[in-house]
Amino acid sequence: MAYVELAGRCLLGLVFLVAVTGKLRSRTAFDDFVASVAQFGLLPERWLPLTARLVLTGEAGIVLLLALPATVPAGYALAIGVLGILSAGMLTAVRRGRRPACLCFGAAGVPIGARHVARNLLLAAIAAGGLVASVATSGSPMRPAAALLAVATAVPLAALVVRLDDIVELFTASPVRAKPPVGPSGR
């Protein structure tokens, strides 16, 4: 069980690391992310930059907490909370007829939909399982080869999560791309 927990921890850490770096890779990327938050239509405009910063802080906190052995349970708990809030925001926006671009990983993508919510809920389930497993297996010794295999398993799984929209696009006849948000960067 400790190895499954390690794989889940690495998977979540990598996914959130890509999310943070994608949004912070440039000022334009951050501005586009703020503009995408506005497309959800859930918050007053004055709250958008703060909300975007809070999302980034939460995502960066998950990466940091999951990386430090003493704070792994807190990292899982934060991941569950962040993913729950993001999923609720997505569901609310879709129910209101809004389809903002998914800028979860910093690049303009397809309009949010069921697969994005499902992805978040799957990641939240992994975090919940990881939380239980991290408490149950705390301090369990690991064999280096098996631990390396657990980490190596997480890398392609994280890539699948991060590139999900691209993979779906490969297998659909007519992909629908969202219009990139027009942010303060003038794009």
TrEMBL record:
The chain crosses the membrane at residues 74-94, 121-139, 145-164. It is found in: Membrane. InterPro entries: Methylamine_util_MauE. Keywords: Membrane, Transmembrane, Transmembrane helix. Residues 1-132 form the Methylamine utilisation protein MauE domain. Its main location: membrane. This is MauE/DoxX family redox-associated membrane protein. It comes from Micromonospora sonneratiae. The lineage of its organism: Bacteria, Bacillati, Actinomycetota, Actinomycetes, Micromonosporales.
